[in-house]
From TrEMBL:
GO molecular function: heptose 7-phosphate kinase activity; heptose-1-phosphate adenylyltransferase activity; phosphotransferase activity, alcohol group as acceptor
Name of protein: Carbohydrate kinase PfkB domain-containing protein
Species per Swiss-Prot/TrEMBL record: Cephaloticoccus primus
Keyword terms of this UniProt record: Kinase, Transferase
Domain of life assignment: Bacteria
Ribonucleoprotein keyword on record: no
């Protein structure tokens, strides 16, 4: 990948990607805890600072923009404080936001970190029905965006925006326009989809998509999982993220390659899947074959897990990593 990194990043910078999915704001409270509360047996956190970044589908968009491509994001953002902050972050990265209909609050995940360790997470969100995006509205809003994009990413965090009807409509519009479509699924929602170009489940999600239960002390049934997922969903490419075991690549239901992890030191896996998805789609839309795209994505994700908190990878970081020392 190092030999082709420069030309690939140049091609990526000319890509235009549309991301549709569950948008959220990630909030981090950084501090220290040296005493126990007299009110309850819990630590007292002395707060040092607060930071905010894009999360969920917005983090996918952030990774795309950080790698130099143009990105449009379709997702629900309210007019509340979290929504205003998220809009500012997206604007700073030149990400165009297409607000979708909805009546809920902006999804906000607050993580409390003490001495670089996560103490707890606080979630603020509305019921899934508040974020649903009617297919008719989607067609009117997205038809031109899909036609202008080089690829479409569906980022599902099981919060409600991606429904069977929306996925079917986006797939229909994309096929008519000859566009590449990728999905990062959350199988617990049993979302219906078929004949997409790429899906990127993790190990646990791959079991769910295949209709299997993990067996303790048994090896990962890679061949059966790939065969079952292809039979059920007809996906062209399947890339399963296996954590410390790297990436498993499958085309047409058959395993083509396993790529070892590129992570050097793992601090936080938050957002690594978003980085892998964004990098894969960018590389594939720029003309890379699946194996080369997977190496690129693996390297990008390896950088991200070395950071604490949700954070994107940048083209500069990739170039630095590829520069001989």
């Amino acid at each position: 990948m190092i030999k082709t990194l420069g030309p690939l990043l140049k091609k990526i910078a000319a890509r235009r990607i549309l991301v549709i999915g569950d948008v959220m704001l990630d909030h981090y409270i950084w501090g220290d805890a040296t005493r126990i509360s007299p009110e309850a047996p819990v630590p007292v956190v002395d707060i040092a600072r607060d930071t905010w970044t894009a999360g969920g589908a917005a983090n996918v968009a952030l990774n795309i923009a950080s790698l130099g491509a143009t990105c449009t994001l379709a997702g629900f953002v309210s007019d509340d404080d979290a929504g205003q902050r998220l809009r500012q972050i997206l604007g700073e990265h030149r990400i165009t936001l297409l607000p979708t209909p909805g009546s809920g609050s902006t999804i906000l995940k607050t993580r409390v970190l003490v001495q670089r360790q996560q103490l707890c997470r606080l979630d603020r969100e509305s019921p899934p029905a508040a974020y649903q995006f009617p297919a008719k509205t989607a067609e009117a809003l997205l038809r031109e965006e899909i036609a202008a994009a080089d690829a479409i990413i569906l980022s599902d965090y099981a919060k409600g925006i991606l429904t069977d009807a929306l996925v079917a409509k986006v797939s229909q519009l994309a096929r008519a326009a000859g566009k590449f479509v990728a999905l990062d699924p959350k199988p617990k929602r049993r979302l219906k989809f078929r004949d997409l170009d790429l899906i990127t489940p993790n190990r646990r999600e791959s079991y769910e998509l295949a209709g299997l239960e993990p067996a303790p002390h048994e090896p990962y049934p890679a061949e059966e999982i790939c065969r079952r997922i292809h039979r059920a969903h007809g996906t062209r490419h399947l890339v399963i993220t296996l954590g410390e075991d790297g990436l498993l690549l499958s085309t047409g239901g058959k395993i083509t390659r396993t790529i070892p992890t590129a992570a050097r030191e793992v601090f936080d896996v938050s957002g690594a899947g978003d980085t892998a998805l964004a990098s894969l789609v960018l590389a594939l839309s720029a003309g890379a074959v699946l194996e080369d795209a997977a190496h690129f994505a693996n390297t990008a994700a390896g950088i991200v897990v070395g950071k604490l908190g949700t954070a994107p990878v940048t083209a500069a970081e990739l170039r630095t990593l590829a520069t001989p020392r």
